[in-house]
Write a structure and sequence with these properties.
single chain; 328 residues; alpha/beta; 10-stranded mixed sheet; 10 helices; Extracellular solute-binding protein; signal
């Protein structure tokens, strides 16, 4: 489900796909709210349909970017960025606000479970887990893993896949779980053994591991939990396992750029995305982010955990360095 999202230290070519719910060239772009987004196509479709239904058709223009490219623009340009609104990985928004003070305060009646911030509203969340191909496990006589560390068993040599933190935000969910549970010293060995077992199956895309598990090229993988749930519900021999090290979550949020002018329309649109579109986004990404939200039991992770401090680009870079060290 999740598209490949290049990280701050990676290189991702611009998608720069204009997804305009605005009647094309007939609309005057000067009168439109420009939205920059790193969201999946599925999420953008939900945002567009909601905005159109709420009477904003022709009043906005969405441009899609990879996470690395949009994050780089935010960190480099600050309030000079062309966008009036951004939907983006929350850690990038927080880092940009800290260094550039580029967003205005927005609010809604929804109450974020994590307390939230004044300048951004969460719109969707992704959670990590282990998933397995039950047929391949049986054929290979492999034990069913219950932890990430179980995947370092030599029996899994060349039969496990996970995303590279240098290229995919999904890979960060794995590294957070390892460091949080084992600490840096033991965690370094766990990660090194996992890297060795994965061999050629360390993927640049967050969706790479589930694809290889589906085809049976590998027996187990780590990635987005919802991908495995969807595959299992399709009748494929796929199951998902919540590792005891923890199911960590990354969120994406919406924020309004401080243009030192009238941001009224931009704020309206941002709030519609965060509130009115939330129902559709919750169906696509079943992670509760606000008080009162309910998801099916199968979507509730057994070991939901979060990092001790706020996720930032600086923290990501430290964890990328941790990964590089484990590769040696």
């Amino acid at each position: 489900m999740k598209k490949s999202t290049g990280m701050m230290l990676g290189t991702v070519s611009a998608a720069a796909i204009v997804l305009a719910a605005c009647g094309g060239a007939e609309a005057n772009s000067e009168e439109q709210v420009i939205i920059y987004s790193n969201a999946d196509d599925e999420a953008i479709e939900v945002m567009e349909s909601t905005l159109d239904d709420k009477g904003y058709k022709g009043k906005y223009l969405i441009q899609s970017f990879g996470t690395s490219e949009l994050g780089g623009k935010m960190m480099a340009e600050g309030t000079d960025i062309e966008a009036d609104v951004v939907t983006m990985a929350s850690y990038f928004i927080e880092s940009a606000q800290t260094t550039k003070s580029m967003f205005v305060d927005i609010s809604s009646d929804l109450k974020p479970l994590d307390g939230g911030v004044t300048y951004a509203l969460p719109i969707l969340g992704n959670v990590g887990s282990i998933f397995i191909n039950t047929e391949v496990l049986q054929q290979k006589g492999l034990p069913v893993p219950q932890t990430i560390k179980d995947l370092t068993d030599p029996a899994y040599k060349d039969l496990v896949s996970f995303p590279n933190i240098m290229d995919s935000s999904t890979g960060w969910l794995l590294v957070q779980a390892i460091i949080k549970d084992y600490g840096e010293q033991e965690g370094q060995k766990v990660l090194a053994d996992l890297i060795s077992n994965a061999g050629p199956h360390i993927e640049s895309s967050g969706s790479g591991p589930i694809k290889k598990v589906k085809t049976g090229e590998v027996a187990a993988g780590f990635g987005l939990r919802i991908q495995a749930i969807d595959a299992k519900n399709e009748g494929l021999p796929i199951d998902y396992i919540d590792p005891t090290e923890g199911n960590f979550t990354l969120t994406e949020s919406v924020a309004v750029v401080d243009k030192e002018g009238d941001e009224a329309l931009a704020k309206e649109i941002a709030k519609v995305i965060a509130t009115e579109a939330r129902g559709g986004l919750l169906e696509q990404y079943p992670v509760a982010l606000y008080e009162g939200e309910q998801v099916k039991d199968e979507h509730v992770p057994a070991y939901l955990k979060k990092w001790d401090s706020t996720l930032t680009v600086d923290l990501l870079e430290k964890h990328q360095a941790f990964f590089k060290e484990a590769q040696r």
